[in-house]
Write a structure and sequence with these properties.
The chain is α/β, with parallel strands linked by helices. The protein folds into 2 domains: 184 residues, Medium-chain alcohol dehydrogenases, catalytic domain (Quinone Oxidoreductase, Chain A, domain 1), CATH 3.90.180.10; 139 residues, NAD(P)-binding Rossmann-like Domain (Rossmann fold), CATH 3.40.50. 30% of the residues lie in helices and 26% in strands. It contains 11 helices and 20 strands. Strands 4, 6, 7, 11, 12, 19 and 20 form a 7-stranded mixed sheet that branches. The chain has a 6-stranded parallel sheet with strand order 15-14-13-16-17-18, with helices on both faces. It has a 4-stranded mixed sheet with strand order 2-1-5-10, with no helix packed on it. α4 packs across α5 and α4 crosses α10. The longest helix has 22 residues. The chain starts with a strand and ends with a strand. Bound molecules: zinc ion (2 copies). The site of one zinc ion has 8 residues, from α2 and α3. The site of one zinc ion (ZN) has 5 residues, from loops.
Length: 368
């Protein structure tokens, strides 16, 4: 089977034949129908996201269960599943606390890009490969932990479900779970890429009165309007903080979301939040960069600055909730999927993402 492998930072991804082991205990073999193309994969390529190489890229997607390993209870062969890039173990401190997205086992898998036992299921010419987030979803088949597979209804559209696995879960989850946006609120969203667009549509579903999109790319700002932004600020033309204050009676927004992961835009999002408001940082930036905040104003302004990992989601609960919002015509997934590619064109898909050409691109596998 074929997979997209990153061998060297800042070099093109290579699509090559690899071998995959049969599923082990509590694992399943999934035949992928659709695999997402996400900024986090690009961050592995650029080296911002630390990962041992060579690594099969891809951490979002959907497909059909082909084969079960021992001990798998909640799935059957033929089931449609969505892959979660956090594997919740169900029994660790955080899973018991009700925060399965912070699962300790899932975090270990995400730091090693191998199954929790430290082995690997993917190889090329006898050498071990890593699989991004323990999945390596940019391939024709994936051996995934059973707990990372969300069972979908039999009629679920797998291409749309693949989108839910990362960008939609993260963006809409940041609104519903992390910020808990109240109806009538004023919201600003920094970054109108795959995640930011989903923050925008989440805020629209939550009943925000004003949704201000901030970006430096005209095309992305146009996408933002079609996903529910009520106004846009081109940060290459005007100071976004001054522009936000001007539009909010000088106060700032109730909720600001940063979906880029840059020092400057995190500081701008915080500055554009009103007193007592909430600033949510979703974008994943460099470990070497730090933000600067006034020590005096932290207590005086009483703002909440919170991080958001995977939309604060319980993926097994929230994926089905999002799918039903799509079914009800409230969540825009058809509009999000602006282009599909075969696996062999994965480098083009990354290039188009960098150029901001797509709301979201997707790899479709012909066998599906
Ligand atoms: Zn992603
Ligand atoms: Zn856990």
């Amino acid at each position: 089977m074929k997979a997209a492998i990153c061998y060297q930072n800042n070099e093109p991804v290579r699509v090559e034949e690899i071998t995959i082991d049969p599923p082990g205990r509590n694992e399943v073999l999934v035949r992928m129908a659709a695999s997402g193309v996400c900024h986090s994969d690009l961050s592995v390529i650029t080296g911002i996201m630390p990962a041992k190489l060579p690594c099969v890229l891809g951490h979002e997607g959907a497909g059909t269960v082909e084969r079960l390993g021992d001990g798998v209870e909640h799935l059957r062969a033929g089931d449609r599943v969505l892959l979660s890039w956090v594997t919740p173990c169900g029994v660790c401190y955080y899973c018991r606390l009700g925060d399965p997205h912070l699962c300790e086992v899932g975090a270990k898998i995400n730091s090693t890009h191998r199954p929790a036992d430290g082995t690997t299921r993917v190889h090329r010419n006898g050498a071990d490969l890593q699989a991004f987030c323990g999945l390596g979803a940019l391939s024709e088949m994936v051996v995934a932990p059973a707990n990372a597979c969300v069972k979908l209804p039999d009629d679920a559209p797998l291409d749309k479900a693949a989108l839910i696995g990362c960008a939609v879960m993260t963006g809409v989850g940041a609104v519903f779970n992390t910020a808990k946006v109240r109806p009538g609120s004023r919201v600003a969203v920094f970054g109108a890429g795959g995640v930011g667009l989903n923050v925008i549509q989440g805020a629209a579903i939550a009943g925000a009165e004003r949704i201000i999109a901030v970006d430096v790319t005209r095309r992305k700002l146009d996408f933002a309007v079609s996903f529910g932004a009520t106004e846009v600020i081109d940060a290459s033309e005007e100071d976004p903080v001054a522009a936000i204050r001007e539009r909010t009676d000088g106060r700032g927004v109730d909720y600001a979301f940063e979906a880029i992961g840059r020092k400057e835009s995190i500081e701008q999002a915080y500055a554009g939040t009103r007193k007592g408001g909430t600033c949510v940082v979703i974008g994943i930036g460099s470990r070497k960069e730090s933000v600067s905040l006034s020590v005096f104003f932290i207590p005086v302004m009483e703002k909440r600055l919170v991080g958001c990992w995977y939309g604060g989601a319980d993926v097994h609960r929230d994926a089905l909730l999002l799918l039903s919002l799509y079914g009800a015509g409230k969540l825009k997934l058809d509009e999000l999927l602006t282009r599909t590619y075969p696996l062999g064109e994965v480098n083009q898909a990354f290039a188009d993402m960098t150029a901001g050409l797509n709301a979201r691109g997707l790899i479709l596998h012909p066998s599906s």
